[in-house]
Structures are given as C-alpha cells and as structure tokens.
C-alpha cells in the first residue's frame, strides 16, 4: 500500500499529511482564519505570504508525526488546482522541491477530487459508485462518482457556492468570518421555521442551485424587520437561512441519488460540517433507504490527508505528474 506525503495550500489553510492508502498517519493543518477574519474574507496576497511562512513547519511536523522515513514515502501529492494562484504556487513549489530532493514521483491532485476522497478516509470500506454532495467556500456540486477518478457533475451552483452564501449572510447579520460555523452556532438558539425563504430552484436543472436569491431575501427580511426599530431576531434568521440551505441541498441530492439508483450519498467540504445539513441528510436518506456518509469535521474543511488519499489512488493507477506541472486557478473536475 503506497505511503504518500501530501500538501494542500489552495486557499487559507496550509496543510501537510502522511497517509498510507486510506489510513492517516499524520495530518497538520495550520489555519489562517484569524488573520483573514479581520478583513471579513480571505485576502489572497496575505494568504500567499502566510503559506510561505507555514509550509515548511507543516511539512516537517507531518513527516515527524508520521513516524516514517523518507525511504518509506512512495510519492509526493499536491493540490495544483483550482484555488488562489499565489497560494497554490507555494504548496506546489514545496512539493516539487521535496520530490526532487528525495527522488520521489510527484502527483498533481485536483482540490475537489481531494474533498471527494475525504469520504474514503471516513469510511475505508466505501467503494464507487456513490453520489457526492460537495459543498465548500468555493464550490457547490452534486457529483456522481462512477469509479475512482471517473466523475460526472450532475448539478452545480449558478451563482454563489453554499459556503459563500453562509459567509455573506453571516456578514449581513454581523456574525463575522467564517460565517458557516458562526451561523451554525447561533442557529441552535433559533427557530428554523420562523421565516420562509426561497430555496432557489432552477426550473430546467433539478440538481442545480442558486443562492443569490436566498441571500437577497435575507437582506430584505433584515431591512424590513429593522425598520420596526426592534432588535433583529438574529438566531431565528440564522436558523431559517440554514434550514433553507440544508433543505435545498438535501432534496436535490437525494432526488438525484434516487433517479440514478445510487444507494450511498456522501457529503464533503466545509459546509458538510453544518449540523442542520448533517441531521437532515441522515434522516432523509434513511427514510428513502439510502446510506449517508460524512467525514469527521476535521476532514470536511481543507486538509492534506484527503489530497494524500487521492494521490494514492492515482499512484496505484500509475498516474504521476511531470515536474513542469503548473498551477491553475480554475479547472473542471
Ligand atoms: O472546504 P473549505 O474548508 O474550503 C474551501 O475549499 O472552500 O470550506 C470553507 C467553507 C466556508 O465558507 C465556511 O463558512 C464553511 O465552509 N463552513 C460551514 C461550516 N463550517 C465551515 N458552513 C456551514 N456550517 C458549518 N458548520
Ligand atoms: Zn476545499
């Protein structure tokens, strides 16, 4: 079974890990969230500079924690796309340097493929085919995983990603950044049925999403409520918004699974950490005779273990990358 040292730096987490096939030997995530919180979102220039500082310590720590020696490591996997170009370049440069220094093959990993593989780490017995709801700060997709490395995107967002919607609505409610965890926390004290909000259905594309109408509806609601001079019922608004996003995503994913006779649904990415989404997906899936799988919260948000898992799959298929491999800010799965 291949042992992979993996690096992830596509956004605001500097991460390194060592995995042996689907087993995590070490995983280090150095988060920049507190730095970017001051600005209310990720600042690309600052992210790149922080990756420069954090990357070598993260790799050294992951290597040391793994208990492995360089001779035991079969390849270096790294996220090359999509993401912030300056951030990606730091991880890719580090990966190329290590690969050259220790004479290891280099494996380029698509960030979204990494997120999909976080489900394989969560349940090592999981095998394709399955349906994957991938919801993060930059993406909202329903992906039919037909086989390892064989993906069909069944639905995507027409505008904001699910995580982006959480972050924007949290800013609107004055809850800070990142918005997802803040909304999740305060929603526990609110009534999810307090306000009816639009789920953003797309008439001719049943598995696509649109969150911009929902965001505008929350804005109008806050304007209307605050014009009464009363304090805003923040917890009720947060709970109603969260329940609407969860219902929209779960309905589309479950319908897609049933239409394509897929028995297992996995939810991955930062928004898959959301408690309302998790509980609604578990109950809806089990009502319909489907299995729902979620990675633990630490594997939902960006990490390098998932990149290592994807790297192991590529290595087993003899797929390695040239040292000239470039970074891409955008790239379809
Ligand atoms: O997967 P991720 O770490 O990074 C990307 O690849 O984008 O996802 C980050 C996103 C952020 O938008 C954050 O607000 C959201 O995931 N998020 C959540 C929760 N935890 C993180 N959204 C809803 N509920 C949560 N508990
Ligand atoms: Zn991600």
From TrEMBL:
Domain of life: Bacteria
Domain Gcp-like, chain residue ranges per copy: 23-308
Segments traversing the membrane: none
Requisite cofactors: Fe(2+)
Enzyme class: transferase
PROSITE patterns documented for this protein: GLYCOPROTEASE (PS01016)
Binding site for substrate: 134-138, 167, 180, 184, 274
Reactions accelerated catalytically: L-threonylcarbamoyladenylate + adenosine(37) in tRNA = N(6)-L-threonylcarbamoyladenosine(37) in tRNA + AMP + H(+)
PANTHER family named in the record: TRNA N6-ADENOSINE THREONYLCARBAMOYLTRANSFERASE, TRNA N6-ADENOSINE THREONYLCARBAMOYLTRANSFERASE, MITOCHONDRIAL
Designated name of the protein: tRNA N6-adenosine threonylcarbamoyltransferase
Main location group: cytoplasm
Cellular component, GO annotation: cytoplasm
Any one Gene Ontology molecular-function term assigned to this protein's record: iron ion binding
Localization annotation: Cytoplasm
EC annotation from Swiss-Prot or TrEMBL: 2.3.1.234
């Amino acid at each position: 079974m291949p042992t992979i040292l993996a690096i992830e730096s596509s956004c605001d987490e500097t991460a390194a890990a060592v995995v042996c096939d689907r087993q995590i030997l070490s995983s280090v995530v150095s988060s920049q969230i507190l730095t970017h919180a001051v600005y209310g979102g990720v600042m690309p220039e600052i992210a790149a500079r922080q990756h420069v500082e954090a990357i070598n310590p993260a790799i050294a720590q992951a290597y040391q924690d793994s208990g492995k020696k360089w001779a035991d490591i079969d390849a270096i996997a790294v996220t090359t796309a999509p993401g912030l170009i300056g951030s990606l370049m730091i991880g890719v440069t580090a990966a190329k340097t290590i690969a050259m220094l220790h004479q290891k093959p280099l494996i380029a990993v698509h960030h979204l493929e990494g997120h999909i593989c976080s489900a394989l780490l969560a349940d090592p017995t999981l095998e394709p085919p399955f349906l994957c709801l991938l919801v993060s700060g930059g993406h909202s997709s329903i992906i039919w995983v037909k086989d390892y490395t064989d993906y069909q995107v069944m639905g995507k967002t027409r505008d904001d990603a699910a995580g982006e919607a959480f972050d924007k609505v949290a800013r609107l409610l004055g809850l800070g950044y990142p918005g997802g965890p803040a909304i999740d926390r305060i929603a526990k004290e609110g009534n999810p049925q307090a306000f009816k909000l639009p789920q953003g259905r797309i008439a001719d594309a049943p598995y696509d999403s649109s969150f911009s109408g929902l965001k505008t509806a929350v804005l109008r609601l806050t304007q209307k409520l605050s014009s009464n001079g009363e304090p805003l019922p923040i917890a009720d608004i947060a709970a109603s918004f969260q329940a609407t996003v969860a219902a929209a995503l779960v309905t589309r994913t479950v319908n897609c699974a049933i239409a394509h006779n897929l028995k297992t649904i996995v939810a991955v990415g930062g928004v898959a950490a959301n408690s309302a989404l998790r509980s609604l997906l578990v109950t809806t899936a089990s009502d319909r005779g489907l299995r729902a799988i979620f990675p633990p919260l630490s594997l939902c948000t960006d990490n390098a273990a998932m990149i290592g898992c994807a790297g192991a799959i590529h290595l087993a298929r003899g797929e390695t990358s040239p040292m000239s491999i470039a970074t891409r800010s955008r790239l379809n799965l």
